[in-house]
């Protein structure tokens, strides 16, 4: 297949997804989100059309053209740290503040590119419809829509001004209630709510503090170079996987991990039989912990669907998942409490 303009041969089994094949080849801008085709974080362009790569087998892309955000730059070989090397879409996402954590940004950028390739001047409804296949938990989409509109203008040769924040000073005797009456109506002609800063009358005017700035790591995020946990690969690194309970409440009557331990590539399998029963709090707060110390790493009793039963460490995620299927568990299913009223009764 062709990836970002270069002929590439990717090693993949028949069941390997395009997502996994691309990430294994080093294209870590393509993110794993849900694995079910719902979130869109894994979006790439396949022959120019956005697809969820977790739902496409790698062999289906044979002989076709794949574009990831690593290939979006208009200056191949240039450093992503040079803004002039970035695609207008990447620049617009930085300039409008459409990037926060940056996890879904590569997918947003590629989806927007496909839209602008077929429609150079989309309206807001068309942009929202096109971008609906990529979920974002950070931005609320307003800035994303603004970024696509700005990029469309840049690609058409226009040079639109950024929407500046409104600056206002509250009159010395003005009641605070005035803010509630004023803020909802501070709109730009196009309908956007402008960033608004209303200062108390005795606050000095500032030139740097409180002024809008491009995100420090914006270029890195726009180029898909941010290193998230799943992007890190160290020499000799092992991958973990959890076997979890299918029952809401049960005792582990018997557990046998011998077949999993014998699988080549598996370095460790832990069950409650292998670790001390040390209680801890899952609150994650500093001392003193207000939540009860009622958790253990692995226990002979499970208390909810998804509770931990066994942990595997292996050389690849695939081996780890295969090992989970080799762990034999027999459960003694116990009564479960499934609503608050039952939980408050004596003896629950």
**Integer count of domains:** 3
Q: Estimate the mean pLDDT confidence.
A: 88
Helix content: 10-25%
Largest sheet entry: 5 strands, mixed
Distance between the termini: 59 Å
- Strand runs, count: 13
Using the CA coordinates, give the radius of gyration: 26 Å
Give, in spatial order, the strands making up the sheet with the most strands: 2-1-5-3-4
Structural class call reads: alpha+beta
Output the CATH class name of the largest domain: Mainly Alpha
Q: What is the assigned CATH homologous superfamily of the largest domain?
A: [2Fe-2S]-binding domain
Order of helices and strands: EEHEEEHHHHEHEHEEHEEEHEH
Per CATH, the architecture of the largest domain is Orthogonal Bundle
Count of DSSP-assigned helices = 10
CATH topology of the largest domain: DNA polymerase, domain 1
Shape: globular
Low-confidence stretches: 185-189
Strand content: 15-25%
Describe the structure.
This protein is α+β, with helices and mostly antiparallel strands and 348 residues long. The protein has three domains: 2-155, [2Fe-2S]-binding domain (DNA polymerase, domain 1, Orthogonal Bundle); 166-211, no CATH class; 239-342, Alpha-Beta Complex (Aldehyde Oxidoreductase, domain 3), CATH 3.90.1170.50. It is 23% helix and 16% strand. The protein contains ten helices and 13 strands. The chain has helices at residues 18-24, 88-96, 105-118, 124-131, 142-155, 177-182, 218-222, 258-262, 317-324, 340-343, and strands spanning 2-3, 6-7, 43-46, 49-52, 65-67, 166-169, 196-199, 239-244, 250-256, 266-270, 301-302, 308-314, 328-333. The strands form four sheets. The chain has a five-stranded mixed beta sheet with strand order 2-1-5-3-4, with helices on one face. A hairpin with a 2-residue loop joins β1 (2-3) and β2. The longest helix has 14 residues, at 105-118. The chain is globular and about 70 Å long. The model is unreliable at 185-189 (pLDDT under 50).
């Amino acid at each position: 297949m062709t990836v970002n303009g270069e002929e590439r041969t990717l090693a993949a089994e028949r069941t390997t997804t395009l997502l996994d094949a691309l990430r294994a080849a080093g294209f870590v801008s393509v993110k794993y989100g849900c694995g079910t085709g719902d979130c869109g974080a894994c979006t790439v362009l396949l022959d120019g059309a956005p697809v969820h790569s977790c739902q496409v087998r790698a062999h289906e892309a044979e002989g076709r053209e794949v574009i990831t955000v690593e290939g979006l730059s208009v200056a191949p070989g240039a450093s992503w740290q040079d803004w002039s090397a970035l695609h207008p879409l990447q620049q617009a996402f930085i300039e409008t503040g459409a990037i926060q954590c940056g996890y879904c940004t590569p997918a947003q950028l590629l989806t927007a590119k496909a839209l602008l390739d077929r429609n150079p001047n989309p309206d807001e409804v068309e942009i929202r419809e096109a971008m609906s296949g990529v979920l974002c938990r950070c931005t609320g989409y307003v800035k994303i829509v603004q970024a696509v509109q700005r990029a469309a203008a840049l690609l058409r040769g226009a040079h639109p001004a950024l929407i500046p924040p409104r600056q206002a000073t509250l009159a010395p005797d003005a009641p605070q209630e005035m803010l509630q009456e004023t803020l909802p109506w501070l709109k730009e002609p196009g309908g956007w709510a402008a960033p608004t800063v209303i200062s108390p009358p005795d606050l000095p005017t500032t030139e740097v503090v409180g002024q809008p700035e491009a995100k420090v790591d914006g270029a890195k995020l726009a180029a898909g170079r941010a290193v998230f946990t799943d992007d890190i690969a160290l020499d000799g690194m092992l991958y973990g996987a959890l076997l979890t309970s299918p029952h809401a409440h049960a005792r582990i009557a018997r557990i046998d991990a011998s077949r999993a331990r014998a699988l080549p590539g598996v370095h460790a399998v832990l069950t409650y039989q292998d670790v001390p029963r040390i209680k801890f709090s899952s609150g994650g707060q500093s001392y003193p912990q207000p939540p009860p110390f009622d958790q253990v790493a692995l226990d002979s009793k499970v208390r909810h669907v998804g509770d931990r039963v066994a942990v595997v460490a292996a050389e690849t995620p695939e081996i780890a998942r295969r090992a989970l299927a080799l762990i034999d568990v027999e459960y003694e299913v116990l009564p479960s409490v499934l609503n608050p009223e039952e939980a408050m009764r004596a003896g629950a």
